[in-house]
Amino acid sequence: MSQIAKKHLLAGIIFGDTETGEYIYLPGGEVGAEHPLCVFEHDGTKEDIDLDMAGHLIDHLTLKKCIHPTLGNTSF
Hints:
Blueprint: H1 2-10, E1 15-17, E2 22-25, E3 37-42, E4 45-50, H2 51-60, E5 64-65
Antiparallel strand pairs: 1-2, 1-5, 2-3, 3-4
């Protein structure tokens, strides 16, 4: 699943869990970067993570495609 999740992140899809407030997405400014960094929102903080870690966390935390409370359907 992580390869599919990575491709979805690169397309602007947001993964998250509205119950726990955990979200992972790729900001628009990272599109086309050689080593894009995703944002992992959790516990009221934002943390930069690489695409591989994002794929791993999406699988590990069982995050699903969702609507972000401020970004909406897509991250860009």
